[in-house]
Automatic annotation (TrEMBL):
GO MF term list: metal ion binding; tRNA N(6)-L-threonylcarbamoyladenine synthase activity
Name of the protein in its database record: N(6)-L-threonylcarbamoyladenine synthase
Matches recorded under SUPFAM superfamilies: Actin-like ATPase domain
Domain named Gcp-like: residues: 27-75, 107-158
Enzyme class name: transferase
Organism: Pyrenophora teres f. teres (strain 0-1)
Amino acid sequence: MQDGGLPSEHDRTGPTPVDITTRTLPDFVSVTRGPGMRSNLFTGLDTAKGLAVAWQKPLIGVHHMQAHALTPRLVSALDAYKELNEPEAEYLPNGTVDRNPAQTHVSPDFPFLSVLASGGHTLLIHSASLTDHRVLGSTNDIAIGECLDKIARVVLPSEVLQATKSTMYGALLEDFAFPVSSREEPASHDTPTLTSNLPVNSADKYKYTSDHQYSWYEVPLNHEDSMLKNVTAWGWALNRPLSKSGGGIKINSLEMSFSGITTMVERIVRYGMDPITRKLNKKERAATDVSLEERRDLARETMRAAFEHVASRVVLSLQSQQELMEAKPAVVTAGGVAANSFFRHM
């Protein structure tokens, strides 16, 4: 219908019908069964059950963490399948498209490492095959996502917490620590627009287009260098957990811990620190006495300490296992915390 006139013949026919008999049903329906948050898991389970019943296909439960580890290969396989259906795909003599799965490459190649970081888990996993997964390291207390959520509730200004309807406190903490204006490349006639022809979602493209966001960050040479760089103008410093500053007993283990960072930040906000003695004040301070600048530094330093802690475990795992060093494996990040841009950068 145009300009109030009667519908044309084309309008009355509606969209072109789709022949559903040409659709191929899956061999089975798989869904993550746990562990994880009950409400989130049930959303997927209920949907999968409905599809399995409607299609009369088997329902297969998958371990939540295994699904995270293998998701990159699933995405890669789907992309490879799409390429086989492109117009330039190779056709066989009978006119059909050559869809030989053996000729497609699925990445990342085995073996590879996965950092599964979320509100409920922090795991470093070695994946040797589809069914061979080994946990190399994990947190001995709270997960990194829970750490960020707890600190966000303490560090974020009250007006920010009151204005938001979101419960994704970790994401709010990142937005507060790195405002959008600080993430944008300053406009300059001498600086070309950041563009790239690299594949979408590649690590190289991400690094190429986002390095300017964290130009202030320098990778520490060692633990001692890290401790020197971590001292702030406020007198406090957030050092990596399980490092020499904390006794050093587990400095070379693949174990992780995040409760110490949470406790330290809570004390800094509550008491403040004497910049000369570098000791916590004995008298509590009001929330209004914590400046916006100090809160932003706390948010940044929290993420830096937590993310460096995880990154150090990845490096240790590579150094401690000869077969991994020789394979030069990919490192996959998954879970809610993997959405953090600073985490991916590091």
